[in-house]
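name: query_chain
kind: protein
chains: 1
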Amino acid sequence: MIKPTEEQLIIFLKESNAIEGVYDQESLDQAQKAWYYLIEHDKLTPLVIQRTHAILMILQPIEDKYKGHYRDVGVRIGARYGMNWHNIPKAIEEWCLISNMPDADAIRLHVAYEEIHPFVDGNGRTGRLFMNWTRCVNDLPIITFRASEKHEHYYRLFD
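structure:
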């Protein structure tokens, strides 16, 4: 498993937060804690997904019942509606199975995760954590999308 250097990790997490308009040090600290929790696991499971979200979102301004728990409401993602929330647990189980396959395509998995959109908030940030976890376990370097280039590079993944 390739792990990023501390400098690479901080740049990735700062940019990932910035894509969502989150800039405070406390949120960066929580993102680091979420990464270190995640990278301890050699498989993604629904529990790991939910725990990673809980760690990342602990200080964020969403209702406590949504921190580490799948949404139970509909959401809009840009111009489209997210998956029906009743389907999220099964979709995440299936997504985890594919994510744990050798040589899984991290970018495609990230796009698929964002289509599931399992949480009321924090989907982009957790999704980018899981994308880079997949890259690390497949001995690839992490990818950092820059907030300043999110429209030219990052959001184009979802077209």
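note: DSSP finds seven helices and two strands in the chain.
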